[in-house]
Automatic annotation (TrEMBL), chains A, B:
Record CDD domains: DRE_TIM_HMGL (cd07938)
GO biological process: ketone body biosynthetic process; L-leucine catabolic process
Protein name: Hydroxymethylglutaryl-CoA lyase
Keyword Phosphoprotein: no
Family recorded in the similarity comment: Belongs to the HMG-CoA lyase family.
Ranges where the Pyruvate carboxyltransferase domain occurs: 12-279
Catalytic activity, EC: 4.1.3.4
Length: 320, 320
């Protein structure tokens, strides 16, 4: 026995990012009707925070080219937050024009990664967020801040905490207090998630922290467990576990929403999500994109499905 | 932040059960040369406890029909424990005759499951283990005791701790102090693994506990994390994550050895296993059975593969 002490929250929040991070690497471009159907299905499952797309240049990511139309045409249900990713002020203006009230900015905490993608180091890039914060303030929009490569970078490996903390400070200076630590490459491990997560949650209690995990190397569910211990109570997920890197055939993508919901429910933790309906969203998404994602409960079934099947089997046996 | 306190061991033991639990449901029957090649590869990777097969009736599980021949022909490397599953005294005698010195008995802690499979409730079935314990004692063999359905049963759902504890007591009365808590249906969840695991490890400190996990519902890696906190320091795994139920297409099987090794190494926990070689075993196994298993690191790659690829990419870019 160890002296370890695990603590479980009563309730956590699930943020559905399938329409953005799940779909953006898919070859098959979904049409607007399909996206609206998926969005309705997500809302129907009880998820209250939904990332609907990304206001990038239409040529940059074809799958995201109709985000403005999604935003204009979607049903808006009270109590649901419809969040969109914006790369810069222009994106934010488009988001606002289409009725979006919550936007997510994103920067890589890795200098090499940030320079590679945006030709600017992180703090330089964040200077562009100043007019975004002003615009959001004037237009009554809320902002969220994402930090990619927070758990490891393909170029730099693990990123020192101090380097991440500089970005956190910068976001806070901009008045942004909802921050996500993102692991798009699936490099986070549970020990790190506990230690680093606990440090940030302790140091910045005013922040609403979101943990954004990918399951590329099979560590994501372990990271959820460690993340709960660190004190995270909001997790991004994508229906059907979509969002794998297009250059790694067969690799997993975002952690699957329905797997996280199933895990948490099995542990007696409330998510407010109807698992059956979340699984249905994932099935619809797989059908639309034309291939399977990476969802354990879609393939293996829920615990309760197993007990139901066995009961059925026993009943049939008795009837014979 | 929470008051949770996570503790990580310096070193854990990996037991490879791919040759038994991994292969036993595979349609393609491997020949003896293939099995010996797999076994050599497992030993080569540094794994010190290997379940080589099962001494059941040859007609019961065709894939296991040549376990005796495997045992007779395998190279025996000093310091490696070659364990075999035996259902009863007859199996134990066959194991002994072929030079096996460590055998694993198994019983389901679920009455319904045990009666369904063996027509006897658990404690009645364990009466048959008394002559096994006597035989092992006389013949200088070591015994291990497995408890299936320990984390949940398709017929009965969660099994009360007291019911499991009766089985533990019975094994201890037989002088068996290596015990595994098995989750063949993938129903264990991390909260349960921590609470129940901690109870047993605290109550029976004289036992060498082994945690046997399946990833059917995507919870296994979370259960490893919780298991480490409970104080487990030995885990079964199967190369390539083989061992899915033949009636659930696409469902995961045993937790993949190489995924566990990768996870632990990323967390700075020593396993004594060469991950590259363990991945090689998994690749060989997939080739032999003719389909992919369920291995995240085989598909998504290790963290270090990613950094290497990026370095290569950067180098190539500079050369252009």
């Amino acid at each position: 026995m160890t002296n370890a002490h695990m603590i479980w929250p009563d309730k956590v929040t699930i943020c559905e990012v399938g329409l953005r991070d799940g779909l953006q690497n898919e070859k098959k471009i979904l049409n607007i009707e399909e996206k609206l159907q998926l969005l309705d299905s997500v809302v129907e499952s009880g998820i209250k925070i939904i990332e609907i797309g990304s206001f990038v240049h239409p040529k940059a990511i074809l799958q995201m080219a109709d985000t403005e139309e999604v935003a204009r045409r979607m049903k808006r249900v009270n109590g649901v937050e419809y969040r969109a990713l914006v790369p810069n002020l222009k994106g934010l203006e488009h988001a606002h024009a289409s009725g979006i009230t919550k936007a997510k900015l994103t920067v890589s905490v890795s200098k090499s990664h940030c320079i590679n993608n945006f030709n600017l180091p992180p703090l330089e890039m964040m200077k562009g967020f100043i007019p975004c914060a002003e615009y959001a303030d004037k237009n009554n929009m809320k902002l969220s801040g994402a930090m990619s490569s927070a758990w490891g970078c393909a170029f730099e490996g693990k990123i020192p905490i101090q380097q991440i903390e500089e970005i956190v400070q910068k976001y806070l200076e901009l008045g942004i207090t909802e921050l996500s630590l993102s692991d798009a490459t699936g490099m986070a491990n549970p020990r790190q998630v506990f230690e680093v997560g606990k440090y940030f949650i302790k140091t910045f209690p005013q922040v609403n922290w979101i943990l954004h995990l990918h399951d590329t190397r099979g560590m994501a569910i372990g990271n959820i467990v460690a993340g709960l211990q660190a004190g995270f109570n909001a997790f991004d997920g994508a229906f059907a576990g979509l969002g794998g890197c297009p250059y790694i055939p067969g690799a997993s993508g975002n952690i699957s929403t329905e797997d996280v919901v199933h895990l948490l429910h099995e542990m007696g933790i409330d998510t407010g999500v109807d698992l059956e309906k979340a699984m249905n969203t994932a099935r619809i998404a797989e059908k639309m994109i034309g291939h399977q994602g990476h969802s354990s409960v879609l393939r293996g079934g829920r615990c309760e499905d197993l007990t139901k099947e066995k009961a059925q089997y026993q009943n049939n046996k008795q009837l014979r």
